[in-house]
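Researcher: Structure for this, please.
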Amino acid sequence: MQIMVIPFNLMDERIKRKPEDKSKRLPLVSCLTLTKNRLLLVKQAIECFCLQSYQNKELVIISAGTKRYQTALKNHIDTLERVDINLVLLPKEHIPIGTMRNISLDQAKGKYICIWDDDDLYHKDRINIQYSTTVNHQVDACYLTDHLHWFDKDRSLYWVNWKRFSTQQSMDCMVPGTLFMKRPLKIRYPEYDHAGEDNIFRSLVFKNYTVYGLSDYGYLYIYRVHGANQCPNNHHKLIVKKGCVELSFIENKWEQLKEVLTYLKLPMPLLMKGPNEITVYTFN
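Model: Predicted structure, token format:
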């Protein structure tokens, strides 16, 4: 399959890169994004990348979708003034998601990769904290064991702890979309076209590499339910029902929650939900 690779310079003052000499001492991290026909969402994911505190990074964007979409995405990126975003335009409108993920692995230049889905949101310190975790714990890969789960339609937010689904440091308590690891050279995604390719890849990561699950940093990653996710809405409702943390935990994380909600500028009013769908805070 012939693909088009377009490196770009990038945008406005808020996300313009500020080069730091010391960043060259850190290894390059490749953030991997797949996208298809959702420009508004991917723009927000790009902005989250641009605002990361970790400096030595690149964003690899693999784009399927219509020609109109790819042109709009290219034009958006082309207005920015960065050297750390590479856009790969696929020649077909529809490509299996596993195939797209493998293309992103092939395009990555970094020592590390970081999954950067186009419809989710990320705290500015996500790369820095997960990189530091892999170094400090001397492991190949790091997943988060908790995350924030955001429902666009009713503006509700949940802190979900995946350790409620399994035991500490087991594979099932690792959030698949939060993978940060040394760039894998001996494993690939299954090239089928339905949800679950990241779960299969997670099992391969556990089989072939050392892994650490980072707990209590769920504010680094906001999974967004927007109505066009791979999994249906009832799947996400089941996740928050089983994994939503208690009020006492939310109270202990109050400062981090306020920071991330201010930083990401989620629409208000926003309802912070606890167990049994009880609203524990309303952010205005």
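Researcher: Any notable elements?
Model: Residues 29-281 form a domain with the Spore Coat Polysaccharide Biosynthesis Protein SpsA; Chain A fold (CATH 3.90.550.10). DSSP finds eight helices and 14 strands in the chain.
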